[in-house]
Specification:
Elements (H helix, E strand, L loop, with lengths): L19 H27 L6 H23 L2 H36 L5 H10 L9 H14 L7 E2 L2 E2 L6
Length: 170
């Protein structure tokens, strides 16, 4: 299938047609991202994950990402894709930060419960704690990676300054 041409200055016009399979996979990835964002958002609301400023980071990023996905679905331009990419990088970072916060809170709690605990025993207890679940913020990082996968070599990113840039040969 020959590539479509960019018509005028319309940023929403496709730059090049992707193979149907790739387009379908990209749509499924975006659907999974939306389901994950919405599901994790509901879970954090039910857990009242907004009691401290640090806890607001995750729900705030989730709401922002859902708004950015909505903008991207409507607009399809490179700006919305770049903003979505930036948000997904923030998700990866927030996931790492959340892992630290959860693990650190569990370590402090375990030390309060048993001041003599240390080493591997402390690490195991901190990782196995149910509240807060030490590895749960990994879901934020995973959603970020899923969003980055959606934007990977997206045809909408090949446009610069209203003109098409040549696609690189793979």
């Amino acid at each position: 299938m020959p590539p479509a041409t960019l018509s005028g200055d319309d940023e929403r016009a496709p730059l090049a047609a992707e193979p149907e399979t790739l387009t379908a996979l990209r749509r499924m990835i975006l659907a999974l991202l939306v389901i994950g964002l919405a599901g994790l958002g509901v879970e954090l609301l039910l857990l009242q994950h907004f009691e401290s400023p640090a806890q607001i980071i995750a729900p705030g990023l989730l709401a922002t990402a859902l708004a950015l996905v909505g903008w991207h679905v409507r607009d399809r331009g490179p700006r919305s894709l770049r903003m979505l990419q930036a948000a997904m990088w923030l998700f990866v970072g927030a996931g790492g930060l959340g892992l630290y916060f959860h693990y650190h809170a569990n370590v402090e709690f375990q030390r309060e419960m048993d001041p003599s605990i240390g080493g591997i025993a402390l690490i195991r207890k901190a990782l196995a704690a149910k509240t807060p679940p030490a590895l749960a913020p990994g879901a934020m990082a995973e959603l970020g990676l899923l969003g980055l996968l959606y934007t990977f070599r997206h045809p909408g990113l090949r446009r610069r300054h209203g003109r098409a840039t040549p696609a690189r040969a793979s």
